[in-house]
Amino acid sequence: MRTTHFFMSITNILALTFILLACSKSKDSPILATENLYDIQQEPQVTEEKRAKYNYLALGDSYTVGQNVDASESFPAQLENLLEKNLNAKINTDMVAATGWRTDNLYDGIKSSSLEAVYDFVTLLIGVNNQYQGQPFSQYEEEFPLLLERALKFTGNDPSKVIVISIPDYGYTPFGENGGMQAISKDIDTYNAFAESTASLKNVAYVNITDISRQGLDQPELVADDGLHPSGKAYKMFVDRIAPFIVSALKD
């Protein structure tokens, strides 16, 4: 009986040992799995896809600054935003512009500014203050071509990357309506005709947005609160016309 009891005890001990080993093994497995999962979660996350970067130079006056609208509503800011979305790119914008600037002021502003050597695209919109301040038209005829030459140099003399924008017609605003709308419009047409012909000679795109500004009296929402400058909505309409030319140039 003692012998039988002895062998039964050994058998029980061996069985118990086997069970403990099996349990120990089953407990180890989840720990290893958890450690592997932890290691995977600690791996660096995938970085954001690198986007193309373009440098943009906006040259002009109050229409480029976005006088009397929020900075984000100016046409250069809206153009930057639109291009970043459509091209999945980063646009770095520089601006040489100020309210009240004529062609000579812009030329001096360019000379005194620290600018990048080469830009991927440049917009040029200038001349309304030459007209408004009663400067002789001959000044514009002399200085606008010089400004266009400077704009071209900023792109490495690539005419496909320069956009000349027509001058808005402030005659179709509450301010202009009371200041001789017909005479203003006639002058603006003269300035724009010269700008367009000069751009054509240099194979530079000319974008007409003047007709949009001439809806200002019928659509007051296109005029800023000052009754003179375009609103953010009007600038968006400008951008919708300008952007395709730039997208085409950058994709070539």
UniProtKB/TrEMBL annotation:
Nucleotide-binding listed as a keyword: no
Protein's organism: Kriegella aquimaris
Pfam families documented for this protein: Lipase_GDSL_2
Stored InterPro entries: Ester_Hydrolysis_Enzymes, SGNH_hydro, SGNH_hydro_sf
PANTHER family, per the entry: SGNH HYDROLASE-TYPE ESTERASE DOMAIN-CONTAINING PROTEIN (PTHR30383:SF5), THIOESTERASE 1/PROTEASE 1/LYSOPHOSPHOLIPASE L1 (PTHR30383)
Keywords on record: Signal
Keyword Transcription regulation: no
Signal peptide: 1-22
Protein name (record): Lysophospholipase L1
GO MF term list: phosphatidylcholine lysophospholipase activity
Domain SGNH hydrolase-type esterase: residue ranges: 58-236
